[in-house]
């Protein structure tokens, strides 16, 4: 008895079950990679927000500078500190969005593993 076309296909690619298992494994690998990427993105976003926040002057230093500054210098310092605060708020919002996206991906992965 010779090989049929089905036998040759199974020999070359594996059974339908083998193919389905391989495809499921590839999908799971892609989901795992997405979760790792989103976790890294969230961590980087948090680090960026922390780095921007570190640009603020120490409160004691700022107070000393403001006491000894001319009105123009004082306005410049206040404007600079305010700009930093705005950048921090924007960076924190981006970090929270990245963390939310990561959390959603983890929950989706958990739901998929249960179903």
Polypeptide structure, described:
The protein is mainly α and 115 residues long. It has one domain. Helix content is 88%, strand content 0%. It is built from four helices and no strands. It is rod-shaped, with a radius of gyration of 28 Å. The mean pLDDT is 90.
Residue share in helix = over 70%
Gross morphology: rod-shaped
The description of the largest β-sheet is: none
The tally of strands reads 0
Please state the average pLDDT score.
90
Total separate domains: 1
Architecture blueprint of SSEs:
Layout (H helix, E strand, L loop, with lengths): L4 H9 L2 H38 L5 H10 L2 H44 L1
Helix pairs in contact: 2-4
List keywords for this structure.
4 helices; 88% helix; single chain; 0% strand; 115 residues
Question: What's the short version?
Answer:
The protein is mainly α and 115 residues long. The protein is built from 4 helices and no strands.
């Amino acid at each position: 008895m010779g090989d049929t076309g089905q036998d040759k296909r199974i020999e070359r690619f594996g059974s339908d079950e083998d193919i389905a298992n391989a495809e499921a494994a590839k999908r799971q690998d892609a989901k795992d990679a997405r979760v790792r990427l989103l976790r890294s993105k969230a961590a980087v976003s948090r680090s960026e927000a922390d780095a921007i926040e570190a640009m603020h002057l120490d409160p004691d230093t700022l107070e000393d500078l403001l006491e000894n500054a001319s009105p123009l210098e004082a306005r410049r310092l206040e404007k600079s500190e305010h700009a930093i605060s705005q950048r921090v708020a924007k960076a924190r919002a981006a970090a929270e969005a990245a963390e939310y996206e990561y959390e959603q991906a983890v929950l989706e992965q958990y739901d998929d593993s249960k179903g």
